[in-house]
């Protein structure tokens, strides 16, 4: 059985890889990816974070400090994000006719509208005050530097305003394409994290579903109507026996439904107290799990268990029904879990892996592990708003086999990609959407 599983596994892995390649190729033809533009500034400042397609559609004029140069008549305002040795901050350089003007004569503000997985996003407000030769906001421009920007500046009694998009690590995906690619989103919130203990073992027939069939009265077997491997139903005739005392022939029937696993008699043989047949009902089986003595105190009946076949195909859940009080010759203890096998997924002798839930704790915010990816040097999830998907850095805490605790970077109620998030990441990386510090 193990050799068969090993022979099948490469084909299964190949199928998975082919599926990933096909999905990635599909995405590469339909996604509009956001990139973070480089800014060649002597001040090591950010310039403009520009979407690749938008950068072609709109020519971005750069100022002398490497930032985006906004113009309205003779009045100009260069917008940079400076982060050399300091937390990222906006710095504005106003000018008229290409010449710097007195900073005290300019009042400026910016509003950054971010995609954060909530219906209306989130907005950051920045106001500016003169410092050295620029206007500075003391509000940190936190990562990611991906937002829709509104800039307002007042000079000489005139109000100037501009709007532009500055996406980074962001992609637009039409709803039908997201569905076709298998992207799934969910609103996240609090939940439970489970501490688990990994165990190993094998599947065995459930002794409670096994029967040895004997003759009611000693006699001679006159007929046998079944063979090993036959499926029998409760009450079905298995053999006939002629009683030694009454000389009457009676029928031996199946006490349960199941599979005939042993036939110990033939026509003409004597039937006594020994078993004529053995029947096993494999619709219920038992996982026999090995337990190290040091883990004995962590286990108790009633704990939830997830069982997976060693070949990765079958999976089921159950609860611990029994933990042996004494060890075997190798000092290992055993824990038993009864599994439903009505679909025939489990076979006696099959090796299995098990995760036993031995503890549980609540977390204010969790995300499934399938939602997590790495982008640049961050752990991220992809938050979703309409047709936009944004890489959102998160700080993670505890985790279990299914979920991770989010300590910061995300709010309860945000909608995130929980299936096939790797496709979004793959296309961002393929597009070269990097952010250089």
From TrEMBL:
**Which residue numbers delimit the CzcB N-terminal domain?**
67-162
| Keywords of the record | Transport
**Which SUPFAM superfamilies has this protein been placed in?**
Single hybrid motif (SSF51230)
Q: Which CDD domains match?
A: biotinyl_domain
Tell me where in this chain the CzcB-like C-terminal circularly permuted SH3-like domain is found. Answer: 366-425
Q: What Gene3D superfamilies does UniProt report for this protein, alphabetically?
A: 2.40.30.170, 2.40.420.20, 2.40.50.100
- Asked if the record carries the keyword Transport, the reply is yes
Work out whether the entry's keyword set contains Transport.
yes
> In Gene Ontology terms, what is one molecular function of this protein?
transmembrane transporter activity
Q: Which GO terms describe its biological process?
A: copper ion export; plasma membrane copper ion transport
Return the Pfam families for the record.
BSH_CzcB, CzcB_C, CzcB_N
Per the record, what is one GO cellular component?
A: outer membrane-bounded periplasmic space
- CzcB-like barrel-sandwich hybrid domain boundaries: 210-281
List the PANTHER family.
Answer: CATION EFFLUX SYSTEM PROTEIN CUSB, SLR6042 PROTEIN
Recorded family membership: Belongs to the membrane fusion protein (MFP) (TC 8.A.1) family.
Name of the protein: HlyD family secretion protein
UniProt organism field: Stenotrophobium rhamnosiphilum
Lineage per the UniProt record: Bacteria, Pseudomonadati, Pseudomonadota, Gammaproteobacteria, Nevskiales
């Amino acid at each position: 059985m193990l050799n068969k599983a090993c022979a099948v596994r490469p084909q299964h892995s190949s199928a998975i890889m082919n599926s990933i390649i096909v999905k990635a190729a599909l995405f590469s033809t339909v996604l509009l990816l956001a990139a973070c533009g480089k800014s060649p500034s002597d001040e090591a400042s950010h310039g403009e974070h520009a979407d690749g397609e938008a950068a072609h559609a709109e020519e971005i004029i750069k100022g002398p400090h490497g930032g985006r140069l906004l113009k309205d008549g003779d009045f100009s305002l260069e917008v940079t994000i400076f982060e050399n040795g300091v937390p990222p901050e906006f710095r504005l350089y106003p000018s008229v006719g290409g010449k710097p003007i007195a900073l005290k004569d300019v009042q400026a503000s910016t509003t950054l509208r971010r995609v954060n997985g909530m219906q209306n996003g989130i907005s950051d407000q920045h106001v500016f005050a003169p410092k050295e030769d620029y206007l500075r906001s003391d509000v940190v421009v936190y990562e990611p530097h991906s937002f829709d920007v509104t800039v307002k500046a007042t000079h000489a009694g005139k109000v100037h305003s501009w709007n532009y998009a500055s996406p980074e690590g962001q992609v637009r995906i039409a709803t039908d394409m997201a569905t076709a690619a298998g992207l799934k989103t969910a609103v996240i919130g609090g939940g439970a994290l489970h501490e688990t203990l990994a165990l190993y073992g094998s599947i065995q027939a459930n002794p409670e579903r096994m029967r040895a069939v004997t003759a009611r009265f000693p006699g001679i077997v006159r007929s046998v109507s079944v063979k090993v491997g036959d499926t029998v139903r409760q009450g079905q005739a298995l053999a006939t026996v002629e009683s030694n005392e009454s000389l009457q022939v009676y029928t031996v029937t199946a006490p349960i439904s199941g599979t005939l696993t042993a036939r110990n008699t033939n026509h003409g043989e004597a039937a006594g107290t020994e078993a004529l047949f053995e029947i096993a009902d494999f619709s219920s089986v038992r996982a026999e799990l090995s337990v190290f003595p040091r883990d004995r105190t962590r286990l108790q009946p009633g704990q939830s268990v997830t069982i997976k076949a060693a070949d990765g195909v079958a999976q089921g859940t159950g609860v611990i029904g029994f933990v042996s009080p004494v060890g075997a010759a190798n000092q290992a203890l055993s824990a038993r879990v009864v599994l439903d096998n009505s679909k025939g997924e489990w076979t006696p002798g099959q090796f299995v892996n098990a995760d036993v839930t031995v503890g549980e704790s609540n977390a204010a915010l969790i995300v499934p592990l399938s939602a997590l990816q790495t982008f640049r040097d961050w752990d991220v999830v992809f938050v979703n708003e309409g047709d936009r998907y944004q890489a959102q850095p998160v700080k993670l805490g505890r985790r279990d086999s299914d979920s991770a605790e989010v300590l910061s970077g995300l709010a309860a109620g945000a909608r995130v990609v929980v299936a096939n998030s790797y496709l979004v990441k793959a296309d961002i990386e393929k597009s070269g959407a990097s952010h250089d510090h």
